[in-house]
Amino acid sequence: MINSVRNTVLSVLNKNNYGYISPSDFNLYAQQAQMELYEEYYSNYNKIINLENRRLAGSDYANLSKPLAETLELFLISDFLRPIFYSSGGLSNQFEIPSNVTTGNFGYMFSRVSYYNEKRYEGTNTTIVPFELIDTTADFFTIGVVPGDIIVNLTTFTNAVVESVLFIDTLALSSDIFPINTGDGYAIYSATDISEAEKVTDGNIFRLNSSLLTAPSEMFPAYTLSKTALTPHPPRTAAYGNVSAIYFRYPKPPKWTYVLLAGGEPVFDQTQIDFQDFELPSEDEYKLVMKILQYCGVSIRETTVTQFAMAQEQQDKSALNQQQ
Length: 324
Known about the structure:
Elements: H1 2-15, H2 23-53, H3 65-73, E1 76-80, E2 83-85, E3 91-96, E4 107-116, E5 119-124, E6 132-134, H4 140-143, E7 150-153, E8 158-167, E9 170-173, E10 185-189, E11 194-199, H5 202-209, E12 222-225, E13 229-233, E14 243-249, E15 258-260, E16 266-268, H6 285-299, H7 303-323
Parallel strand pairs: 11-12
Antiparallel strand pairs: 1-14, 2-3, 3-13, 4-11, 4-14, 5-10, 6-9, 7-8, 7-10, 8-9, 12-13, 15-16
Helix pairs in contact: 1-6, 2-3, 2-6, 6-7
């Protein structure tokens, strides 16, 4: 989709010789346009829910919230959070916020945080077989491992689900999380002993902990968030596999990649390793074009382009506002 959007933008600009937008500038504008639309999804969803509550929105093919919810769910991720280590190397009682470094995705908003309370076993793998865990020192039958349990690689911070117990020392896994080395540490958690944690503010957690009746417990845990860390309450020693978060991630920055011909003309090349298409649905292509044209109009100091794009965008917003 990104090449189609760029071609449309250039076509509009070149029609009246308004100017040329370089690939680097286009990528910057594309990223900002995608983020604008992404954040509008949440506010639009809230408006539609309010319309439904007032019985001003329809159902079936007139159900406006369903396609928007499905679009938002494209960005819904479930990950185990990595523990934070002290400078001395010991484990703290905090977990790292999702980012490109920790989970591969920047977290936008937490939807649910769950604590896995029962650790069945911890050991190291002794043999490499794809999609299996083999630990010749373990007895998985006696331990009580069952299909559906969660297994985490404590060395590479990856996880999988136990599909079946093949032998006394062998588990079949849903993902190949032990592909290279023996000696990787692992832990197995029960998938049934889980507590959902409630988010509280730093100011409220002090008041809650001041009373035995309101203090968070293992059965009713809570957590607080800072810019870089999630802190469980009551405190628990952080370990990978302890805490799972379902969260909405930011869309990945789009990048129009290209190769240069002999004359210096860039030609689209999506085979490059850093290529990234838009992550928004195809029906929002024209909205991306309009928003990018606004940035282009500012860049080339051409108010006609900006006014045209803003007028088209305003038509879309007025349709929703009229229903309210």
